[in-house]
Amino acid sequence: MHSPDALRADGTVSSLRTYRYVRVSLVAAVLFLGIGVTWHLATLGPLRSISAAYYTPVRSIFVGSLFAVAVGLVVLAGRSLRRTLLVIAGFTAPVIALVPAPVPSDELELLTGTGCPAGVARCVAPGTADAIAVGILAYLVVAAAALVASLAFLAVDRALDRGAWLRAGGAAVLLTALAVFSTTPVFADLGHYAAAALFFLLIAAVAGIHAHAVRSQGVRGPGSLRAYSLAYSALAALLAAVDAAAIVLLLTGRASAVFGEQWLLIVEAVALALFTAFWILQTVENWRDPDAAAH
Asked: pLDDT at position 19, please?
């Protein structure tokens, strides 16, 4: 625990305040999205998924919220495995925003006035191919530039060690894989769901790793070590279970017949609620830590 006077003495008050604002703004971004989707449900009618908001007046909120989450996760980059996984999740979020989810033809027609081509049961909206292409191109260029800049900053700080090179190499491999994947015919159909599944899997992994870490390293926030460990373990298990269930149900293609047309909306809402709970718990634990990015 650091006292306010100690924080002022070593010049970390401003950085700690910024760190807190970034953490709180990430929760605000999820709330922003929730308000937009709730507005659509209350005024324009049902949605079968949160992802379908891309095709509605809520699109700007949907895309903006995901980019805000991405920036928050990347800004909070650190040296540990947990922070590295959060950064990868941050780089995944823009793909969720830029690549729309394919939706059933009848829903697409209801939302946009145009359904899928004849004989196609599920698709992205006609004419979105160019938007996907330019969005992913811009994203890859900016992500690559950010990667190079991060290496340059580390070099200036004389912190460019073997671990930094390994993390940068891993990021380069992932960006290259995305670039190749984006040129394939199946990218428009699978890109959104693949990115979303990876995002929540990474968050589940971070929660699981942190549940183990608090038992060996202790906690820095209010509350008992046991409570934090149990909470992180539960969040990790629930996130992984929800993620796996969504993947299986999407692959079977029969979820709507069994659970109703809005099953995916409910699953996505639960996943976002679990992510928000995880983030709030992390924020409470690290509220007074001036160097939380090191953990």
From this structure: 85
